[in-house]
Structure of Cysteine hydrolase family protein:
Amino acid sequence: MAKQALILIDIQNDYFPQGKWPLDGVDAAADKAAQVLQAFRQAGDAVIHVRHEFTSEDAPFFTPGSEGAHLHSKVLNEGNEPVVLKHFVNAFRETNLRALLEQRSITDLVVVGSMSHMCIDAVVRAAADLGYKVTLIHDACATRDLEFNGKVIPAAQVHDAYMASLAFGYATVVSTDEFLAPV
């Protein structure tokens, strides 16, 4: 029988409007993530929070011990919900995330968080490669504009390109409403 866990990736203060690295649409995405979080809590399903801190005080955001590196109030962990601290883009790299999933006999992951083009992309691909069935909630993720070769790529296009890519071979990609709809 499949056992699922919600993985909340890097929903941290620095990504919000008053933070050091604000993302486009982050408040709306965090509100959707909070809806999914509430559903997991009500169902008694596993919830694991992941938070990123860089190891250098010179980092552009998520500096060690800073308020910006703390989980945002919309999705704070409660009770026995573990918080995995990571120092790399991939939440599985040099963390206890996989051990936590194995201890709980988790087979299916539901992923929300930030940034679509970095940590979400990395964790979804890694999870699929490790054999997990992954569902990605696209409107519970956020990113920002990128620049490449002298061109600015708007955040919405960055997000859509990554969601399309992950849907092609790594995850089932759905909206919050689709995920929470009664079966």
Q: What stands out?
A: The chain has a mean pLDDT of 97.
